[in-house]
Amino acid sequence: MNTLDCPIIKFNVLPDPEKPVCLNVKYDKNASFAAGSTFPDFMVSVISEDNNIIKNINPGRVSMKMWEGQSSGNRVPANVTTLGCSKVKDGKDEGFFYFRDKMVPERVGTYSIQFAFAIDKTNILSSEQIIIDVVPNDPVQLLPESLPATPVVSNVRTVASRTLIKDLCLHIKDEYNNRTGNDLVGKIIAAIKSCSEEDTDTPVFQGKVKTIEFPFNRGSAEIVNLVLAENSPGKDSTEYILEFEADLPALAKPLEPYRLSFMFYNDFKKQQRMATLTRERDELSKSIAVYRNMFDTTEQLVTEMKYQVQEAETRQSHLKNELKKHQIDIPQTNIFQYVDSLIKQKMLEQEGVKKSPRRSCTLSNYSKDNQDILGKIAHLAQIEDDKAAKVISWHMASDMDCVVTLTTAAARRIFDETQGRQQVLPLDSVYKKTLPDWNRTLPHLRNGRNHFRPIGNPVFARDLLTFPENVEHCQIVFGMLLGDTIIIDNLDAANHYRKEVVKITHCPTLLTREGDRIRSNGKFGGLQNKAPPMDKLRGMVFGAPMPTLYSTLSGQIDLLQQYRTAVVKLHSVNQDLHSQLQSLNTPEMQKTKQELAEQERNLKLIEEKLGTGSPPKSGWQPGRETRTLPVPPVSSLGPWQWQVCSPLGQWGICPKHADTTWHND
């Protein structure tokens, strides 16, 4: 079998600098995540195939997702909280997206965070999941494991009738009801306080003592068999406060004591009768508090929805006015059909502009297989004006083929690969202190005023350059190679300009739009100072940027797409508000209001029998018996998700925290 020899073709597949492949997330990995505190700043960037940061990305396409627990693999559960990025300060850090001042969940536990970049409507690029442990915040209060019923006691001989607490476990908790203080050791001091300063006949504990101490260890204390003294002093049919105060030397700030109201009677039979009424009152107080929370939450939801409608109307109106500035008027009817048709038309027009012929550099660029290689100088800048492009390209002809690198090492590698035939310019070897100030004024200006009146429209050559990317690096390159070179209309104007400038300062090189050059030493004339026609430059000319019409159309398309989204949003929030308002007048809601009114009447009757005007000050409190879970913010919830607590114990929205749910255990 014969084999044929054939030439070996080597080719290099270049990475796509516009194709996103991963997200880079930076944050303080040593930070602690205390419940209810603020996350450290997250800095996110989108990385391309060539391992560089992709810029010019709409911040709305980058988001932060958070949920409780861990997901298998890289899957994101349905019930996640989605947060947007913060505004970039002063327009700096292009390509970086910051997530600042985001709140840590209020419930202790393990949470997952993942950042996402919407490549298009169907493809999402996600970061690796960040697993965090939310720990309790600072201890602030002393609370029981479960709230006891209001004690009703008397000073009779029977111990059971004098027992304030049979068994109660107290824990230290933070302001979000998370248990904490496991490392604290000390004691709990129980004392009885009067609700009235005039009442000095305060009951005492068994043994005729005013205070009793209980050991506190590992964040908890067991209060067992707390009994009043037989024949204890105290005013009949009076409410007193049983106060538990923590004495913990390691805590710099004292905790809020736990207070439990109790009713005191001198008569055993009356005590038994009132104990039954007190239990009924406690149950009614619980139920009424749940109902009131439900109505408060519903009112809060309606207020939030009205605010959303107002926001959506403002957004739509703003975008409509912006479109009018572009001579685009939106009709009152068939909005979606009109906008979709106009977007399609603008996109076709934009595509036509993109494909229209324009000046381009035909010099082959150097392979950017290394992030330290910026490319050849001819490809780093673009110039809109044809005359300026011709004369500047000719003036820089000896530099156009030079490859610019960030490091000397990269430059040396290119030098070796080309056996020294390729010009290279490493930027780490440039002495930057002698570079011209990019914002310097023309030499005929002194203190903001003309020293003389120039002719010929002089302008710095560097100000005619636009840089598609790597702006800071390109400013170094062209600042060094072009310096303060000035472009002016013609040779007569150039000679007049130079003659006047040298009276006050040094005059830089002058290039004319007709192709002449006056060197900084004043020399002009001859073939070496006259630019040839454009076709003689053999493609070594700076390309033209995309026409202004292209960016105008891009802006119009973006505005139209935003306007369409705003119309959809307004329609959605209006529907949600209408549905919610209708739900307030349903038979079920009317029945709920009647139930509340009935319970309030019954509570008032019981209070009259008990001889008190209100429930005990530290009886059942809804906020003390809630559990908080992170859920999507109000703006992302539909009406069906706003189920509110009823006496049956359904899930709902906590009135105190609009971004947490609560449940009556």
From TrEMBL:
Primary localisation category: nucleus
Name of protein: Structural maintenance of chromosomes flexible hinge domain containing 1
Subcellular location: Chromosome
GO function terms (MF aspect): ATP binding
Biological source species: Chelydra serpentina
SUPFAM superfamilies: Smc hinge domain
Biological process (GO), any one: chromosome organization
SMC hinge domain residues: 371-498
Stretches of the chain forming a coiled coil according to its record: 274-329
Keywords: Chromosome, Coiled coil
PANTHER family the record matches: STRUCTURAL MAINTENANCE OF CHROMOSOMES FLEXIBLE HINGE DOMAIN-CONTAINING PROTEIN 1
Pfam families: Ig_SMCHD1_7th (PF26201), Ig_SMCHD1_8th (PF26199), SMC_hinge (PF06470)
